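sorry for the late reply, my laptop died twice this morning and i had to redo everyting from scratch. anyway the thing you sent over, i finally got around to it. pasting the sequence first so we're on the same page, its 268 residues, then the predicted structure underneath. double check i copied it right bc i was rushing
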Amino acid sequence: MKSAKEIATENKIIEKLKNYPKCIELVKYLFSDEELQEMQDYANNVSIKRLGYNDHGPVHMRQVAINAVKMLKILQESGIKTSLESEEIGTFEDSMCAVVLASLVHDLGMMVGRQGHEEMSVMLALPIIDKVLLKIFPDNIHKRVVIKSLTVESIIGHMSTKKIHSIEAGILLIADGCDMTKGRARIPMAINNTPKVGDIHKYSANAITKVNIQHGESKPIRLDIEMSSEVGFFQIEEVLLTKVDSSPAKQYIELYAGVIGEDKKCYL
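ok and here's the structure:
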């Protein structure tokens, strides 16, 4: 059964996609897919209970979708074309469909384990990708091929270990990195407080209180991060900044971070 947080996040996604009917049709189909829900839940079980990582389940994947939608809309409002648009092979809505679809399946590989989970996510997600695209675009094989390819690129590139080339995949990469507030660390922090190597990720995520995605001043997108203590800088420098540096969308990003009540550091 879905949590209240999942349902609320789904409603936010649908609201943000209100001008994109094919995207709304796509997400509603995915939100009603019982198998996908079970896969997301199990991925989270493995991530948190078995491996001791942060949330990699349904709430995380939905939050990544929200982050990605916000950034893509800011780019559009700033006159920046997606890769599909600039290459004249697809529309902005096609790009949005690919990024949202990738967001909702990108961590399914955590069902198996952490190592190589990007490739495993692709393998597990392909039947779902094919199924939903055939449902949404039954008479348009061009859109199915293009959106599927872009979705796979976005999934495979979300850890910044593989070279990606599209704006869309670059946005997904950054959107994933932006989901790092204390809510992601709440469950693993509550389950196990026994010290072990890797705890810095939980403690640093627990220090992040807010991630604002908004219009920038010198660049289209501003990422503005607030934290309760300086341990949060680890999350910025070791996770988010690594992803931004690897992203084809880096040129469009401003990045500021700081402890509440203190001057923020400008990273980009």
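Residues 118 and 156 are 5 Å apart (CA to CA).
thats about all i looked at so far, will dig more tmrw
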